[in-house]
Amino acid sequence: MQVSSLNEVKIYSLSCGKSLPEWLSDRKKRALQKKNVDVRRRIELIQDFEMPTVCTTIKVSKDGQYILATGTYKPRVRCYDTYQLSLKFERCLDSEVVTFEILSDDYSKIVFLHNDRYIEFHSQSGFYYKTRIPKFGRDFSYHYPSCDLYFVGASSEVYRLNLEQGRYLNPLQTDAAENNVCDINAVHGLFATGTIEGRVECWDPRVRKRVGVLDCALNSVTADSEINSLPTISALKFNGALSMAVGTSTGQVLLYDLRSDKPLLVKDHQYGLPIKSVHFQDSLDLVLSADSRIVKMWNKDSGKIFTSLEPEHDLNDVCLYPSSGMLLTANESPKMGIYYIPVLGPAPRWCSFLDNLTEELEENPESTVYDDYKFVTKKDLENLGLTHLIGSPFLRAYMHGFFMDIRLYHKVKLMVNPFAYEEYRKDKIRQKIEETRAQRVQLKKLPKVNKELALKLIEEEEEKQKSTP
């Protein structure tokens, strides 16, 4: 388990560490755990929580019991049962999944949008039905009151599929050339779609008419931002009845009140990468926005950074486990990320032991030690004659000093003082000898004649030495 801290917010990475191959026997696994410290200290929260190559999308069911993830290769979906902390089932698919939606409270009704225009429906037993949309899809949303699926993609039309009647309805005609993302407000059912021209069009599903347009591309340009291309909408998320967050392809997040066409706040990620997903954390009034490089958590009123998370591999999707401080990520790597942030909320019910574990770690803090790097100050660099390396990739600035490769440090140390190792070795040998001498039993040698008198005199001398300060 790896612990990081930013702005005094602890983030526990539960998925880091070495993973053991499945083909190893239990005997070899136990032997590795005895020998390797990294394997012994790792926490496998959910068994086999990974994909063969890459994970693209990850979601949690409404009841919180199941975690579903899609990935490659081969294209597949995996369902994990959190109550059993293991894989429940795995289903291989015909093509890669763009996105999917869980329609039921558990895993019994799932809809997949594939990259070959197919829409696939799965029931509890497995594959149920497959149909096709006219153009390539990029996102879809489900309108619960009318049982309509709204599909957006490489077309100006928004396709509607009614699941109650089992047929397509008349599409919604937008002013955009293509649509990237969409979302439906859970409170009043407003449908919003993000276009490649940088606009958000809002529609009323009851009358199938457009009720408003937001020009987010123009509002995302600030005095400090450098824009090389037209910002397109890459993420969209409603929060409550009146709040909406819009993510752009140039790395900005805009917060809107639906009663105004001007954004309340514009947050720039400063990386210039498209925003992948946006989530709201209501208990602390936070917004979680993620691009392929970083997950930023910031206050939705002031925009002040709360904390950030930068994984080792690029991000594809982020999912916030409901009513908890757990964060799940889909990465460009076989392992899916599991992060626990106690400040955001408690651990989920199925892994409540994490609260006790983090409390113990906070009570017994350990200093951070990097085995492959040596921390040196500027004075140490002057003694080693390495001040010319400041600003180069060989030194990484940290607090009041620098981190440098331990191998480079030993080489330079040996060149500066060739006899340093011999002196160190002699000192260690001398210390070992003194320790063994102190552990020996001290025998009192008594004369053969008058042993009792000699023993009495020795005891009197020891008492005098103890009494004298």
Automatic annotation (TrEMBL):
Transmembrane segments: none
Domain (Nucleolar protein 10-like N-terminal) ranges: 1-364
Keyword annotations from UniProtKB, A to Z: Coiled coil, Nucleus, Repeat, WD repeat
Keyword Nucleus tagged: yes
Compartments, as annotated in UniProt: Nucleus, Nucleolus
Gene Ontology cellular-component annotations: nucleolus
PANTHER family listed in its UniProt record: NUCLEOLAR PROTEIN 10 (PTHR14927:SF0)
Protein name: Nucleolar protein 10
Species of provenance: Mus musculus (Mouse)
Higher taxonomy: Eukaryota, Metazoa, Chordata, Craniata, Vertebrata
